[in-house]
């Protein structure tokens, strides 16, 4: 696995999930920075202000105000050159087959994980999407 720390944006409305995910990422030492957005709109605001500082977005589906799917629709309209380097992983409790199928058919989504996030899942994800890349 690459040793390069990543700038990670966690997008989830659940405080406990954010706490656990942040703890896992901290323990792994894989994050240069971790920013938490509790809905899609806050995530878009963060991206607009810090596009060059985001390598990975861990995106929940079911959130108030703006859910993961609504976030992705708005995300598509952002400058393509900024979006090119960002990996988006859906991380959700949804076992709805339609959600997984929809995620697999969206070019912006690189992967789909069911909660809870574990060190093993995160390690495999980083190795798959970031190995041998300098970020």
Automatic annotation (TrEMBL):
Annotated Response regulatory domain residues: 7-130
InterPro entries: CheY-like_superfamily, Sig_transdc_resp-reg_receiver, TCS_response_regulator
Pfam families the record matches: Response_reg
Keywords on record: Phosphoprotein
Modified residues (4-aspartylphosphate): 60
Organism superkingdom: Bacteria
Biological processes per GO annotation: phosphorelay signal transduction system
Name of the protein in question: Response regulator
Species assigned in the record: Flammeovirga agarivorans
